[in-house]
Amino acid sequence: MVAIKIPTPLRRFAGDNAKVEVKADTVGEAVRKLTEQHEALKNHLYDENGELRNFVNLYLNQKDVRTLQKDETPTKEGDELVIVPSIAGGAADGVLSREVAEGRVEASIAGGVCEAEVSRDEVAAGGRMVEANIVPFIAGG
């Protein structure tokens, strides 16, 4: 099985799942099976011609599939596929872009979109991050 990590903004279209597992031989097959299980995702991932949208980035085991074999990139048991939609803009002052929930959240930090492990204790009143381990996923501005 391939574990597909669903980004927070798309989870509501995937039954509120953070991760979905599918059996697939390629990245393209994995994403197609994901959208078969969760049809509401299809319009967010594919354009009207059935092509993956330009702003949807896929990472197989932390490697950008565009640098591999794109949707023909082979997958194997235990692989992790991460969907990362490109998002432009952000808050330059480090204000979280949405209410913080326990666990992994996405935030606008220093003009880019980042994903962070945070808890309510790490966020001060007004949504300003006090302290957290930030892992940048997308450079933006």
How would you classify the helix and strand content by structural class? mainly beta
Mean pLDDT: 73
pLDDT < 50 stretches: 88-141
**Helical amount among residues, as a percent range?**
10-25%
Radius of gyration, rounded? 16 Å
Task: Give, in order, the helices and strands.
Answer: EEHHEEEEEE
Q: Class of the largest domain, according to the CATH hierarchy? A: Alpha Beta
What count of domains describes the coordinates? 2
How many H/I helices?
2
CATH architecture of the largest domain: Roll
Multimerization status = single chain
**Head-to-tail CA distance between termini:** 36 Å
Shape: globular
> What is the name of the CATH topology of the largest domain?
Ubiquitin-like (UB roll)
| Sheet having the most strands | 5 strands, mixed
Walk me through the structure.
The protein has helices at 27-37, 42-45; strands spanning 2-5, 19-22, 56-60, 63-64, 80-85, 103-109, 112-118, 133-138. It folds into 2 domains: 2-85, Beta-grasp domain (Ubiquitin-like (UB roll), Roll), CATH 3.10.20.30; 87-141, no CATH class. The strands form 2 sheets. It has a 5-stranded mixed β-sheet, with helices on one face. Strands 6-7-8 form a 3-stranded antiparallel β-sheet, with no helix packed on it. It has 2 helices and 8 strands, in the order E-E-H-H-E-E-E-E-E-E. With 141 residues, the protein is mainly β. Residues 88-141 have low confidence and may be disordered.
